[in-house]
Amino acid sequence: MGRAPCCDKANVKRGPWSPEEDATLKNYLQTHGTGGNWIALPLKAGLKRCGKSCRLRWLNYLRPDIKHGGFTEEEDNVIFTLYSQMGSRWSLIASQLPGRTDNDVKNYWNTRLKKKLLAGKLSSFNIDNNGGLMISAAKKPEAAAASLPYYSTPLPILSDVGYGFSVSSSSGTSQSLPLDQVMRFSLSPSCPILHISHNNVVVVSSQEGSAVSDSAGNGYVEDSSGILVDDHHHHHQQQQQFNFDFPYEFINGEIGVPSLVDFSHAESLT
DNA sequence: AAGAACACCAACCGCAAGGGG
DNA sequence: GCCCCTTGCGGTTGGTGTTCT
User: Fold this and answer.
1) Between chain A's N and C termini, which has fewer beta carbons within 10 Å?
2) How many angstroms is C1' of B7 away from CA of A61?
């Protein structure tokens, strides 16, 4: 036996809310409040809706302080900065944006902001007291020693950006990038962080299962864990794994590489 | 003009956390 | 400490509108 459903699904209305239902819910809440129990609320208010549905409708749409309409560039940058630090904690991100709901922020990110970021159109980011906003999947000792900030959340925003490596310039143009150029920046084995910029170029990794090749025609594939491997070695069961394993920082709106990064691993590619 | 593809977003679902008995 | 219930959250879905071919 699983958990009992929160309401009798056969006897509740689902789908879009009618203006009449909105008015009923709004009037009830403005008169009585939630009463501390959303589950019992629809019955008291005379609505044939699930309590969860009522709560969602109120929080995401009917609340008087909700801000409807487009996001400002300032809001974009707040969302991106916070997402970079904490990942998809939409409620926390939304709490920093008055009038915005977690659902709003989440939808906005998924439908627009990801693309905006990849097109290189985000104009500015916060730089913290240590001079950089760092993004990485794992703590790196050198960064810790240098007192650089680190965050444990990877950059999932890049997980579905497309296939192969591509380059977005700050002017918004995009082109594919030979892997041997990418490998100037892809340095050491272990963590699949896949986004980095250098000299105003942003490099974005591929999705799982895609393949890329360098200018000499050597093939590379991503293995089942999303790690980029040399296709030749892959087939000979001598896998070499190449990943980004260093912190990034935002410098003038670009993601930059701190000077402490050791590029020596890159040599193993050629 | 019509169908397909894409974009947007409201709403739903399931899970986890927290609180009360 | 355990169980049950409610709430809050994040991921996902599906309907609708818009743009493209």
Assistant:
1) N
2) 21
